[in-house]
């Protein structure tokens, strides 16, 4: 039985060390979470899979890691200072604060009162000061998106790599948004991580590339184990588009809270590169791009057909790491009733995503020879650097199996007295609970084969 409520996932994540409330010993800080020992492994596995598919397995992509702090003029000309706002309302009865578009039936979600203030704009960027003197010339923002770091480095990347259209720049990094009402566990938070691509194309080819990226991104999520039935696309209506967008398609996932966005694929046209360029009057740009009085750059690239300088259009696939982790947990969570009436909780994660690939378990914890054999097997498997393997002796063999079912470990390797006689071990499969006996020197190849995944290459 899959997870039917967020509470099931929150309980599992806290109990088993996936995700903890931020600053918990001080009462927490709303909208912040810490990824625990297993959560950070799952998160890293997701990011590695994304980087592999979009950078290593493509010939048209470069990587980048831009600064979180940027010159404040970046956010002026990107439009964020003026447009990156949410409508906010206050409840006069209980003094709580809400995003206006999340208030249902005109009533406060906390106390039910209809006595709400009129909506007013609230800029979601975190503002901070840079340097020892706090004045109006020394402020900066924690970036609300990773995209602008790519745009301001466009010329640097082109000049240093010699790239030509079409090509992309990929980045994984932290972003910050001062959400009015963080909610639904790690789905909507104030500090989060993005996996983002800016893919640069010729104007006129943008709609074709937009369609191709939408299809590619849906296919990629299914390679991680998300069911196609739990994914669908939503074409954002014109009236709801971001200030930079010509068209946006959201990939939606069926979370326990309903259908919500896991990734957005936007056609940003030439808005951003044009906004950050000097002497825009010499370029054929949209009227809504303001004249930049501070940038010294011309962010152009030769047209592959005419060789004349153009400002390329941009297709942006942008996925949330935290939302991806949450979707993987939702998809994998299962409860089943065993023949003896016991309920087994199991995370059916794809092995490539599992935080721990194998647990080595002694049949008897107080038998030194068995313990030594376990630790030798664990050391030999982990020293390859290809998989996380743990030595598990926190309970009897049955409890060890249940613990690792619950955290998604695909294989448990049991060492017993027969191991000492003939150098064989028992390997138990998480999903089927079936067990086989193998020689120790065949265990690595068996695990490697079971963990290996086929990743769909992005078509280019």
**The CATH top-level class label of the largest domain:** Alpha Beta
Question: DSSP helix count?
Answer: 13
Helix/sheet category: alpha+beta
How many strands appear in the DSSP assignment?
24
- Examine the secondary-structure arrangement and name the CATH architecture of the largest domain: 2-Layer Sandwich
Q: Indicate how many domains the architecture comprises.
A: 3
> What does the average pLDDT come to?
91
Identify the CATH homologous superfamily of the largest domain.
Answer: Bira Bifunctional Protein, Domain 2
Q: Could you say which overall geometry the principal axes of the C-alpha atoms support?
A: globular
User: Strand share of the residues?
Assistant: 25-35%
Query: What is the assembly state of the chains in this entry?
Result: single chain
Distance between the termini: 39 Å
Instruction: Please give the radius of gyration in angstroms.
Output: 26 Å
Helix content: 25-40%
User: Strand order within the widest sheet?
Assistant: 3-10-11-17-14-13-12
Largest sheet: 7 strands, mixed
State the low-pLDDT regions, or none: 454-460
Description:
- It is built from 13 helices and 24 strands.
- By secondary structure, it is of the alpha+beta class.
- It starts with 5 loop residues before the first helix and ends in a 9-residue tail after the last helix.
- Residues 454-460 have low confidence and may be disordered.
């Amino acid at each position: 039985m899959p997870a039917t409520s967020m509470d099931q996932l929150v309980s599992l994540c806290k109990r088993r060390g996936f995700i903890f409330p931020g600053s918990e010993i001080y009462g927490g800080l709303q909208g912040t979470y810490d990824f625990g020992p297993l959560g950070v492994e799952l998160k890293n596995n997701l990011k590695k899979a994304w980087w592999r598919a979009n950078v290593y397995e493509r010939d048209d992509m470069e990587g980048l890691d831009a600064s979180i702090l940027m010159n404040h003029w970046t956010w002026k000309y990107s439009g964020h200072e003026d447009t990156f706002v949410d409508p906010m309302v206050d409840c006069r009865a209980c003094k709580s604060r809400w995003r206006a578009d999340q208030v249902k039936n005109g009533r406060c979600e906390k106390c039910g009162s209809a006595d709400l203030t009129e909506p007013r704009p609230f800029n979601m960027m975190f503002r901070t000061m840079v340097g020892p003197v706090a004045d109006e010339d020394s402020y900066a923002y924690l970036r609300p998106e990773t995209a602008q770091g790519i745009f301001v480095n466009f010329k640097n990347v082109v000049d240093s790599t010699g790239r030509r259209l079409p090509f992309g720049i990929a980045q994984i990094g932290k972003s910050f948004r001062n959400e009015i009402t963080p909610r639904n566990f790690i789905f909507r938070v104030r500090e989060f991580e993005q996996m983002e691509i800016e893919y640069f194309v010729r104007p006129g080819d943008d709609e074709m590339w937009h369609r191709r990226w939408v299809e590619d991104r849906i296919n990629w999520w299914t390679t991680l184990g998300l069911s196609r039935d739990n994914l669908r696309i939503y074409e954002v209506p014109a009236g709801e588009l971001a200030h930079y967008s010509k068209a946006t398609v959201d990939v939606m996932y069926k979370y326990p809270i309903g259908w919500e966005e896991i990734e957005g694929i936007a056609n940003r046209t030439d808005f951003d590169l044009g906004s950050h360029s000097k002497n825009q009057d010499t370029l054929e740009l949209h009227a809504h791009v303001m004249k930049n009085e501070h940038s010294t750059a011309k962010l152009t690239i030769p047209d592959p057909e005419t060789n004349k300088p153009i400002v390329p259009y941009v297709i942006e696939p942008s996925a949330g790491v935290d939302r991806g982790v949450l979707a993987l947990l939702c998809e994998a969570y299962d409860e089943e009733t065993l023949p003896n009436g016991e309920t087994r909780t199991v995370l059916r994660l794809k092995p490539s995503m599992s935080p721990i690939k194998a647990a080595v378990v002694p049949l008897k914890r107080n038998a030194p020879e068995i313990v030594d054999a376990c630790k030798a097997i664990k050391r030999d498997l982990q020293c390859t650097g290809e998989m996380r393997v743990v030595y598990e002796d926190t309970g009897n063999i049955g409890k060890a199996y249940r613990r690792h079912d619950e955290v998604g470990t695909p294989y448990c390797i049991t060492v017993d007295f027969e191991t000492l006689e003939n150098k064989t071990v028992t390997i138990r499969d998480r999903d089927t609970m079936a067990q086989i006996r193998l020689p120790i020197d065949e265990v690595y190849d068996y695990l490697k084969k079971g963990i290996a995944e086929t990743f769909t290459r992005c078509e280019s």
